[in-house]
């Protein structure tokens, strides 16, 4: 699974991540909990290769991600849902979910689309609507669907419940719970763990760019 060792990442010469080391549990829900500005997005973007490591390694199974160019990572089965969703407004929900198919050769994309609609039936209901007509929470569901299109092995979810109505945050929690039976490994960043604490098998705390193992997420949330 994913292992990070002694990772340092700078943004414009400012050190943001410092000596980050962690190992995700395969097929499980892993949490990354830290306040705003702690470095959660920076860590997710580094795993995706959108930010360059200054030092350290990120390994996914036997592939050293920190040495692989972006286009060679696409086939590894890692999906990313950014915090700000980044949907293409003029495309429909379904077209947004299919965006990874344009750049990656996903031969079974229609099967995957059917699987996504089984996991998130709401997306099938509004599949023909333009992204702009959807609420913030519905757009998050579409962004999750798009991440699932490519993320058959590992999903990186940056604050999936942030900024959405409580009812949709609960629904997102339910969908993520159901994902547990699908065998996908998940890494969820949240600024607090109220919506995801019951889901997490393992969690890490991030503070000012440094990560420590959070031994018992449930105990701490009480
Ligand atoms: P949030 O939920 O607020 O995004 P976060 O934990 O995801 O919080 P990051 O976005 O990773 O935090 O930011 C970590 C640190 O890096 C913050 O101090 C932030 O100000 C800084 N940072 C992020 N992007 C830039 C940038 N483009 N230029 C300079 N500093 C940046």
Provide the fold topology.
Elements: E1 2-11, E2 14-23, E3 29-33, H1 40-47, E4 55-60, E5 63-64, H2 70-73, E6 78-81, H3 93-97, H4 99-103, H5 109-119, H6 121-125, H7 136-150, E7 154-158, H8 166-179, E8 185-190, E9 202-207, E10 210-214, H9 217-221
Parallel strand pairs: 3-8, 3-9, 6-7, 7-8
Antiparallel strand pairs: 1-2, 1-4, 4-5, 9-10
Bound molecules: adenosine-5'-triphosphate.
Structure description:
The chain has 222 residues and is α/β, with parallel strands linked by helices. It has one domain: P-loop containing nucleotide triphosphate hydrolases (Rossmann fold). The chain contains nine helices and ten strands. The strands form two sheets. It has a six-stranded mixed sheet, with helices on both faces. Strand 9 and strand 10 (210-214) form a beta hairpin. 40% of the residues are buried. The mean pLDDT is 89. Bound molecules: adenosine-5'-triphosphate. Adenosine-5'-triphosphate is lined by residues 11-12, 14, 16, 34, 36-42, 191. Adenosine-5'-triphosphate binds at residues 11-12, 14, 16, 34, 36-42, 191.
